[in-house]
User: Fold these one by one.
Assistant:
Number 1:
Amino acid sequence: MRSIVFCLLIFLSYSCFRAEGGKGGEDTKDETKPPVLEFARLTHHFGDVNQGEKVACRFIYRNAGGSDLVIHSAVASCGCTVPSFSREPLPPGGEESMEVVFDTAGRSGKQVKTIYVRSNASNNPVVLTIHAKVVLK
């Protein structure tokens, strides 16, 4: 019985130590500020565009946080919209751009497309929107 109690005490002590992060009570708070993805604008209006044209715009963004920003993905709501971006880490204060190409082939009328930008930023995801009115030639 004594050995069971002893083993139980050792197990509980080990569990408490692990729950504290294994640092023996040291302050383990991370002082690094996370990255923040900040776009100059979240929307672009192409206006009237002829059907069959490919139009492009650039969204300027910067890292307004305190550590490197990494964009993991930029996914459009439709296959007609293709975003391209740098996969390199962006240091704090750094600036970059994301190009978005919209192919109007087979489209007509008012078009609204969204791009979901996922990153390691604290404000994740960020949603970009493009608008166009596709007119027949």
Note: The longest strand covers residues 109-119.
Number 2:
Amino acid sequence: MRPCEYSPRKHNKRKVTA
């Protein structure tokens, strides 16, 4: 759950809930 992987407000394509 890192900010570069868990960021639905800007990165909604990688890991949103992983």
Note: The radius of gyration is 6 Å.
Number 3:
Amino acid sequence: MGHPHSRSCVHVFIFSANKIVFSGMVDFSSCTFLFRSYLLEEYLIYRFVLTFVFFLFSHLILLLMFLHMVPVRSVWVALIHLLKLVVKVPSRFKHSHMTQILTFVVFFFVG
């Protein structure tokens, strides 16, 4: 189960209409993934997976930029490719995905 003092967990919360619709926790020490959904909707897990992938992607980019291993231009090219993938998402999912990704862009690159 891991040591009680280990703090290698990431908590993820997804909000929709000011309500928590999904919460998840990823424990990197034991590679476990726990989640709890508050609204059972068709696109919920899909949205969570996309958000979590972007979450890891953003942290990796920031780490590499901090270590001066990746030029800034490559970062923007990678982000453009990621957004192109999102555009290919079915239209009924587009709005929620774009809102979520824009929120994470503001959080990771401004915060």
Note: The mean pLDDT is 55.
Number 4:
Amino acid sequence: QRQTQSFLLPHLLQHSRRPPLLGRRRAHRSTQTSSPGRLWERLHHPRSTSSPTGMWPELSPDKQDSLCQQDDHSQGGDTSTWSWPNLPEDIWCLIHSLMPLRDSARSACVSRTFLCSWRCHPKLIFSEETLGLKQKEGQNIDIARGFTSRVDHILKNHSDTGVKILKFVIRDHYNVDTCHLNSWLQKAVTPGIEEVTLLLPTKHRKMYEFPCSALLDGRGNSIWYLYLTNCAFRPPVGFDCLRSLAKLHLYGVCITGDELGHLISNCFALEELEVSCCMKLICLEIPFWLERLSCLTVSQCDKLRVIKSTAPHLSIFDFFGEPVQLVLGESSKVKDLRVGYSFAPNAVSYAITKLPFIAPHLETLTVYSFCERVSTPMVADKFIHIKHLNIYFGEDGEGAVTPAYDYLSLASFLDACPVLESFILSVDQSDMRHDSVFEDPSSHLRQIPEHRRHERLKKVQIDGFCSAKSIVELTCHILKNATSLESLTLDCIFGADAVGESVRCSAPESGKCMPTSRRIILEAHKALGAVKRYIVEKVPSSVKLHIGGPCTRCHVMDVMLPQVSNM
């Protein structure tokens, strides 16, 4: 016991000079039991008293189920006692298991019960923070050595049972040997473990392979959450060691489509699959027998060409990357879809022309476009179930949404959604290069003749509203044709908070607005002028109008607008 204490003190408690005495000081031993709330408060807000020798307290040999006591000599020579209520040992172990790793280690230094619990602690989260390693300039080598030695020693003294959560956060400068990683996983992954997270730096992608052997002999069958980054994972044919797996996240993992198929084909409990930056994937197939799979995310897998899913209850699907062949099956039940292209153009046009056939039961659709070169076409096919439509336009390589795109053409997308209830348009750009509504004051705003009315549209929000003539025309079109509209929000600065307030400072640290370029602030003032001149008077009295203009404290600027009559 003293040998274990001698290790824990210098390695896990080096940043604190005072003993973590838990409980409150009493003149006499009390038998009163504390409430759970006060008990938890004591665990996280310890009070200390000075020791005559300046050393850590000795363990009392006669207390098995309570925290040890310390004699504290006051100036008058009285003896004070630290005591805890006489609770069953399993209650103390439960309390101990809920504590962070460092607090748990500290408590183990002063309590036999906590020391026993420490040896089978259920949460092993190894990072610089939990191990008390503070990164300082020029000390990366010391931190790397400290990380390896502390993890080694903790796992060496662990009982090999009771681990529920295992997490390694390995930074680039650690230079952890792959043999150490394998030995740690072999040691800590035991029957009953539920969560395994391995966060490795990018350089490990080509030099480390996750050991499938660590999951054999029933050790992986209790895992319901597995998160791997920057490594290779090569499950063989017939791999069935993750029978309880519900959530699988792979980031930067070298795994082929066949190997991923070997992995998930026997994961009958799988509910959520996320695959990101896995460059070996060419074809991703989800079999129909994964009946619990409801959420699929595929992002930045550059070589991926085909995604096929016949999972019967897949309802949420997120895709971001290069265009792929998307096959969701005739009985697709996908209701929430987010799709975006990283470099390819015209994601909005793809969505309106292709998705009605691929995902006919959509209720929520979000489209991200970073290069929309053609305006949105009119289509005959409809999204007969979509209630919520979100479209995001990001800037191209020149810092602006492609000026050739006509925002008014989005009316065709609204027309393709006959039961649409909410529409959010986000325009994120640092330079507005569309024709401004102020450039030709003599021109009239366009209108779409004999257009279908959007009878169920109740809420419209445009985040990043600008002075582009076509976006002003789109807003006026919505006001004219959305007969059930209840709320219209126009925010002239993309991503700003506190819409509609005169002062918008909201950054938690500085109390000021986030740094914004002068060009964006100038355009925001122009956009605000466009709202006041062309839109406000067209808003029916039944519609609540929320306008987010530039911050009156941080974005003050004099802007001269042409004096023209309303149109």
Note: The first helix runs from residue 2 to 12.
